[in-house]
Amino acid sequence: MKSFTGKTLRWEWRDGGLELTLDREPANEIGTAMLEELEIFASSFEALALETSSCIIASARKSVFSAGGDLRELYHQAASVPENERPKGIRSFLKRIHAVMNAIDAAPFVTIAAVHGACLGGGLELALACDIVIADKMARFAFPEMRLGFIPGFGGIPRLKRDLGNAVVRDLLFTGRTLNATRAHAVGLVAQLAGEGEALRMARSTAMQVAKYDPVARAATKEFMKPIPREELESEIDIFCELFARPEVMAALKKFVEDSGPMPYLP
Prior knowledge:
Layout: E1 3-5, E2 9-14, E3 17-22, H1 32-43, H2 45-48, E4 54-59, E5 64-66, H3 71-79, H4 86-105, E6 110-115, E7 118-120, H5 122-129, E8 132-136, E9 140-142, H6 156-163, H7 166-175, E10 179-180, H8 181-187, E11 192-194, H9 199-210, H10 215-225, H11 230-244, H12 247-257
Parallel strand pairs: 3-4, 4-6, 5-7, 6-8, 7-9, 8-11
Antiparallel strand pairs: 1-2, 2-3, 9-10
Helix pairs in contact: 1-4, 3-12, 4-5, 4-11, 5-6
């Protein structure tokens, strides 16, 4: 499938590369609808692998790459089932999103996140699954989950630990503070820093450079340099489900859902 247009995202293949564009109002939250379309996207990798050198993931939303998981949907789904069934439901969702993230992580071509605006929670986890993160100077990154009583659940902690020093990981997790693009570039989270509004253009230029090199060597290098931390990812799911079962989490999510502010997801 060389092109697809869904309710939350779209992609097209051109000149040897894929471009996936997240486009769900208001802030590209990753819920059931986007997960289903990401699963369709991941299922196309094998068929496209032989003629695809790169994939760019970008956003059509003006001020955000992705605000992360759809917390409103998460709350309403959890509230609609008996308390003892909630961990089972959230575990099933996390297993599915981990499968997608792992597919992107291990894709047989180079994946590039072109980030602008807010890149938070699950949105940051999506960027971390990519091989290269390119951000414009106004981008900002954060993991605000702990203020709601749980941890990042889409694979963020193991991938951060794989890519960065633990000091940076702990600072992001324990404070929930926003990391601006310049600082993210300095600590190695961002590979290339672009001017405002230039991340996608720079990503396309990088994709053209990637296409010049041998695909077999590229795939072998990626597998060697970027092993998927599968055991830690499984542990992350366990910890998330254990934390999510607490009544404090439902209370925090209820407060979030009832927030009438325009961007309650911002830390």
